[in-house]
Amino acid sequence: MKIPSKLSLSLLSIAVLWGGWLHCPADGNDFGCRSLRFKRSEGECAPQRYVFKEIYLPMGKELMTHDCRYECFMESNCLSVNIGPPNETGFRLCQLSNFDHTQHREDKEIRKGFILWASENSCTSTPCLHDSTCLNGYTDKRYICLCPDNYTGENCEKDRNECIDNSHDCHAKAVCNNTEGSFTCSCTEGYQGNGRNCTGEIHRYS
């Protein structure tokens, strides 16, 4: 499953409910709806090492906050926003970050005039197995796992049987044997090779 770097801006259904954001693409996708709930951090802080994008947006206290969180919401790897004080041109700095409300507490840098809004991150408990990728805010569980090719299941907990679903690359004259997280190929009797390639029938003479 391909990881979206940015959610589509076309045909969106977006709702702001109880301090959270809900987004459901009208044209549908593999991930379904995404919801994020932001919590405002106490004090003036803005973790910098997790910032991956900066935007300057027009000033306006409540509108500005919502605009910055909207920008975060549209980036699949964004978990928090740092909102800076207004500058002389009437704009505020909006920093998008993958910092969440529980991780890296020691990294909360004090920055005067900044406000940190961090979302709840359901991926913190590492529910996704076998080196899969966890995306926060999707499905009723509030996360979705992107499994590697050789695993399946909600948390990528199930070994994929490539021999049964015919996704293996064994030669037509080979036998596929499923293994945990992979598979092996063995040439059938009378043929030789590594299983991916089985050459010429071996003629036996009595």
From TrEMBL:
SUPFAM superfamilies: EGF/Laminin. Residues 1-28 form the signal peptide. PROSITE patterns: ASX_HYDROXYL, EGF_1, EGF_2, EGF_3, EGF_CA. Keywords: Disulfide bond, EGF-like domain, Repeat, Signal. One of its GO terms (molecular function) is calcium ion binding. One of its GO terms (cellular component) is plasma membrane. This is EGF-like domain-containing protein. InterPro entries: EGF (IPR000742), EGF-like_Ca-bd_dom (IPR001881), EGF-type_Asp/Asn_hydroxyl_site (IPR000152), EGF_Ca-bd_CS (IPR018097), NELL2-like_EGF (IPR024731), Notch/Slit_guidance (IPR051355). It comes from the Eukaryota. One of its GO terms (biological process) is axon guidance. It comes from Pocillopora meandrina. Residues 119-157, 159-199 form the EGF-like domain.
